[in-house]
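Title: [Solved] Cd(2+)-exporting ATPase 3D structure

Original question kept below for reference.
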Amino acid sequence: MKKLEDILAWGGTKKDIAFLVISGLALLASIFNLLPLPFDAAWVAIVLCGVPIILEAIIGLITSFDIKADVLVSIALIASVIIGEDFAAGEVAFIMQLGGLLEELTVARARAGIERLVHLTPRTARVIRNGQENVIPAEEVAVDELLRVLPGETVPVDGVIISGQTSIDQAVMTGESLPVDKGVGDEVSSGTVNQFGAFEMRSTRVGEDSSIQRMIRLVQSADAGKAKIVGVADRWATWIVVIALTAAALTWLISGEIIRAVTILVVFCPCALVLATPTAIMAAIGNATHHGFLVREGDALERLASVTRFAFDKTGTLTFGTPHVTAVESARVEVSRGELYACAAGAELRSEHPLGKAIVRCYREETGQEPPPAEGFAILPGRGVRAVVGGRKIAAGNAQLLAGEGGGVPEACATAAQAYSAGGCSVIYVAIDGRCAGFIALSDTLRPDAEDTIRRVRASGVTPVLLTGDHESAAGAIAARLSIEEYHAGCLPEDKLRYIDASQGQGQPVCMIGDGVNDAPALKRAFVGVAMGGVGSDIAVDAADIALVNDEIREIPHLLRLSRRMMRTIRLNMTFSMALNFVAIVLAMTGVLNPVVGALVHNAGSVVVIINSALLLKWREKT
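Solution (posted by the thread starter after getting help):
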């Protein structure tokens, strides 16, 4: 039976369907003797459906001594022809190819959501060189080149907008249903679509490093054949071939009826057993893709089903990883909150520090205004910034800065700030004209679905754990809000590795969920690694087994339960196929089944297995 890649490459599905239709009509003609042919019309099915099976079996034996289902099917076909059961041989070939086509269609449907990414690769780019616009192949764009993207065009490479404003459809990368507004300084990803305005951008990641190419590499590495349990099924199939030949030979010797031996060969074919695992895995991968996951290896879902602990990174995973102004507290009666906020935002307007940029961003969002202009801006490394805003001298930074610029921090102000620090906030003190005027507290923003995600993970019988490089107060505050009982703060990459090694050494498989470069070793070492594909670093994504493309962590519990459902489906498929084979063999030995009926019974089992696996495509646990 042909591989999915072959079908996708040369359109083999249409050819297979045509052969099956012709073969089916020929079998009907054989039953009712409708065609005045000098031979049995069943031979049409034997040639169109049976010969490819025999050829593939011979090639497998010669090239790699691959004893699988095709070998047994080929022997059954040849034996049926030899004893004159042409119709049985044609029916066996027809039904085997029908089962193979159903498998291929199921797998194709499961992977369709991933395969579409390949066709979204941008072909051309508008590059501006020496003031002239040139259209060139997208793969020829270099880093730090100037590009223009018109409305309706696909962004060819990753980059940063340097002029213009627009809305970008990012559904292919993030799953967002609505376009996202973009302006100067915003990042855009290859494969996303420019909706409205034209803009110019500076390329940052091109070729194989671009976002869409990263996703394609993940697609190409998704392979259900790597699952360990598939190997077990294949080994069983090999032994079944040997047992089938032995049973057929003994039955022929004892009963003297070769038709019983041929029937045993027909019903003993382990197709249902071989189909049991890969169809379930690929259907589960298709389901996971629909929920925003790219599964790099089929056995990742198999391993996920047995984990007992979920280790979460904090920044960028349970939180957005971007600071947000939590409080603005004035320490002087004559300075209002709004005045303090405006002075700080003005002073930080030209700052490149993440906290300073966060103050400016939040001021704009909260007031809808631009910060007041500043003069005499200066960066004081390790302490903060200094500027003149509205004719007043402003200093914004840590307590050390105010000790030299603002006469120190009053005790009441320091006490109030300490309360925010204990809750995991970062504090920026602000001095106006040489005196402390108050402080601004910033904290990382918890994802709105983080609490529900942790609750559902715990309800699934898995223990959530927080592993973070943040200090104790920040880790404790997040853990308390999410009701995570076990957390470890101040973790360096080697600390996370030690925790994972210790847990797995005690028989507690760990699933690590993270996004940063510092998470990459833990993602690699964990029993299963899940990377935040949207905000995560390249290294983290490459190290993980699964990437969560849209960063919607609320889907994590679904992935866990899907993996368990997949394993139940595989076990059910295997149990059913083995039981059906056993019953059919007994009936064949006693002469109840003939080759024709045996082929129907056996291949009905394969169809049942495929349909049962296909149910995983749309499965979602009711809550």
